[in-house]
Amino acid sequence: MALTRLTIAALLLALAATGCGAGGRRSELAASPQPPGTYAVGATVFGLPGGAITLAAPPVAPLAGWLTPAAVPSPDGSQLAYNVWKELRRDDPKLSWTDQGIEPGDPLATPSIRVHDAASGGDSLLDEGAFSVAWRGDGALAYFKGAERDYLAAVPYVGDVVVRSSLDSPPEIWSRRHARYIVAGWAGSSVVAYRESEGEALDVLVFDGPGRVRVLAANSGLVALSPDGRQAVVEQGPAQGRPSVRVLDIESGKQVVRLDLTRVDPAVGTVGYAGDWRGGRVVGASASGLAVFRVGHGRIVLEQAVRIPGQTVAEPRFADSSGRRITAWTEDKAGAGVLLDCDRATKRCARLFPLPRAHGLHGFPIWRRPVYNPSRPLATR
Fold it and tell me: Residue 110 pairs with which residues in a beta bridge?
């Protein structure tokens, strides 16, 4: 089923972000002036080798939330594919559709995917009625393509997972039937995606080719893909029993190992999706902050839990090769998006202030999102 209207409004508000506020205790969240990595503030992307670039629109994908990156660089860094959300009419979440004259089936917005070329500065439309894009090492792209171009009021937004062998190639349908899919990334030559069903329940699927679809993990979220693209760490919450993380072999679908989180550190609670796997470490957002795991040789252990009191974090990424620094996104008390730079050695997170406050679409503050490519491997095998 398509995300509810209130959920989309909440995601827009969660993605909306201004300069950082003062929430959090000073001893745990200090100020730092230099953000690491690549990130978007509104339509401007910072941290690229050639300097900041300006896109045709802010990267934002409210139908996917943090399940997939808002913007994905090509493996060679020369291009950037990103999600765009074009409102066709204003939908005030504080008012009912009836009060606004919105009827079931009325077009509300058009999701689309655009591609920016860093060298030429060109910015072109890849596909309309599409979102959640993943970029493979050889230039192939996978994304969700809606059966309808526009997102319609009170109508499930369903479609297919499609693949292009290059930017100029026509899309090829890989899914067997229409459903609500959200593409997460490539694992070698296979596409890893979510299927969202009634009640916004998520299954992790693997697409091995046109019509070759299988369930990797039911009622689960994808924490991260291994650097070689052969394994995945997935999470399950309390609705499926004890909160846990599992390492799965992607090709066979078999479980390598499972870790019961309630036994190792009950304060961790649950681990969220959209984490990162570098070397032998995996980081995921947890109920209490960040959870860092050691993975390898058929084992997964909780190496460290970084507490971030009073904060809910999303999209944690390792910011250096040593795994000492981690960036993540959260909100301040005013609901503004904040980029955190966390040092595992000191267990402190600095709030980053890259730009002054500014307002964007329909009075929402400017969106901020990290820019990264979760596909593995980034080079072809």
Answer: 86
Q: How far apart are CA 367 and CA 13, in angstroms?
A: 9
Q: Coil, strand or helix: which one is 227?
A: coil
* Confidence (pTM): 0.88
- Gap between the Cα atoms of 157 and 377, Å rounded: 30
**Is residue 329 within 8 Å of residue 337, measured between CB atoms?**
yes
pLDDT of residue 170: 96
Residue 378 domain-assigned? Answer: no
**Mean pLDDT throughout 64-77?**
94
Number of H helices, E strands in the chain: 3, 30
For residue 217, report the phi and psi dihedrals to the nearest 5 degrees: -150, 115
Q: Which CATH number characterizes residue 270's domain?
A: 2.130.10.120
Residue 1: pLDDT above 80? no
Residues spanned by the domain of 346? 5-370
Q: Give the pairing type, strands 53-54 and 39-41.
A: unpaired
Q: How many CB atoms lie within 10 A of CB 200?
A: 12
Q: Confidence band (pLDDT; 50, 70, 90) for 48? A: confident
